[in-house]
Amino acid sequence: MVNYCGNPVGTIAANNPADKYPVNYDQVFIRDFIPSALAFLLNGEGEIVKNFLLHTLQLQSWEKTVDCYSPGKGLMPASFKVRSVPLDGSNGEFEEVSDPDFGESAIGRVAPVDSGLWWIILLRAYGKITGDHGLQERVDIQTGIKLILNLCLAAGFDMFPSLLVTDGSCMIDRRMGIHGHPLEIQQLSLPPHSAFPFASPLPSFSVAYFSSDLLSFEEDRRTPPTKALVAQLRADLIEFINEYKDVFPERFEDMPGIDFSALFYAALRSSREMLTVDDGSRNLVQAINNRLSALSFHIREYYWVDMKKINEIYRYKTEEYSTDATNKFNIYPDQIPAWLVDWVPERGGYLIGNLQPAHMDFRFFTLGNLWSIVSSLATPRQNRGILNLIEAKWDDLVANMPLKICYPALEYKEWSIITGSDPKNTSWSYHNGGSWPTLLWQFTLACIKMGRPELAEKAVSLASKRLSVDQWPEYYDTQNGRFIGKQSRLYQTWTVAGFLTSKMLLENPELASLLVWEEDPELLENCVCALAKSGRIQCSRHAARSQILV
Ligand code: GLC
């Protein structure tokens, strides 16, 4: 635990007393703290999470320069370290200072693009689990969110709605060929939406929200409900369910009666939050909504692969010049790697790692695919397909230790060119196909959301056989994840915290459901309407279903 001015503000990345050269593993990393924060929250210890959120917010506005160049305002650091320094002019007295690292000391000088996104996600989780929404409403916190989003939404030369980043600007923080528009970053940009309201498809829902069944609802603090309003809300909801029941058949069939799903809950809660939108944030909220719709369309449509899609790519025509080309990015069928042809299962599929003109990175990246499930970036059917693929490819993606960070590893010449001959990222090691137990909590969350906790239990039980005996390694190596990683730290905090959080989530699935996002029909509709403006698609919910719900 790291304290600043007497308050706990985070946990260090690794704590192995035998390690004489901890490099920067004695610092608090924003991304590493997320599973620790969830473990604290699930254990009823919200204060440290609040301290962390406020402390890192202060670091956000730090003056920063790298070789005379100042990175964008709003950037959150990768990590920070608290040091004691002698007080000027005092004899023997010390003061504590907190030094953030925005990438200026990091190996490869990479900007931590994911830090701000994780910060927003954690802020939401804090509110959901503690019930303390006052923190989110504070002016300084609102400004922090806006600064992060302004940075992410700034217009550039991009033609795609995905976020353009440099290699290594996330959990994989060294060159691994994930520059451009990598999936790992795209899914993290979705959740900010939940921090902001959007227009409810049901007008009356903006004034009240339901609890777990249709017969009871809690009143909105600002608008006392009337009998007529209650009746209207119910009528709206029934109409809404009827309209969507063939869009999400599995969801409604599974539901006892017309029980409430988190889909509605999230939509209603967000609509309720809408009442606090002011003139200063209206444009930003609009920009977020537009971007969310475009991004989910882009990823669902162009990043998804399964048997059928790969066969389609295999038969692609190339050099198509027109707005309605099928092969929009001019992908040559020869790009389909040999391993994929035999690997892709009959059932299921996944989102590829990256898409750029004439280039599809077909590697499977676990964090991106899991967060696409958790945040509903992918369609409900795609989400089920991703878990089906993990199940079918268990021996490749889990084997002896959950879970591979990506699959397959880069080898030989490809390894040399893409990683820059990085000896830490040799095949099936570290970021290049190594196994990272911290991914377990995100897998657990995705499995619980999709009603497949037994898959997560299997993975947790596998991990429990090795982790404590092996002293909680940072990562494992080899194609089957059998060895503790070559340069793996021991007593790695996010390994311990990820394992604890997974167990707590499995024991409290109702808390897990507060941490996920369900499909948002409003976003689908926006997207179809935008396409309709180009005269190609009719604007309706039915169109949304056929166009976007693959
Ligand atoms: C490594 C990992 C990074 C992590 C850091 C601290 O650099 O790649 O994701 O945040 O270690 O554990």
From TrEMBL:
Its EC number is 3.2.1.26. It comes from the Eukaryota. InterPro entries: 6-hairpin_glycosidase_sf, 6hp_glycosidase-like_sf, Glyco_hydro_100. The keyword Hydrolase applies. GO terms for biological process: sucrose catabolic process. GO terms for cellular component: mitochondrion. Transmembrane segments: none annotated. It is an enzyme of class 3 (hydrolase). GO terms for molecular function: endo-alpha-N-acetylgalactosaminidase activity; sucrose alpha-glucosidase activity. Keywords: Carbohydrate metabolism, Glycosidase, Hydrolase. It catalyses: Hydrolysis of terminal non-reducing beta-D-fructofuranoside residues in beta-D-fructofuranosides. PANTHER family: ALKALINE_NEUTRAL INVERTASE C, MITOCHONDRIAL (PTHR31916:SF49), PTHR31916. Belongs to the glycosyl hydrolase 100 family. Invertase that cleaves sucrose into glucose and fructose. This is Alkaline/neutral invertase.
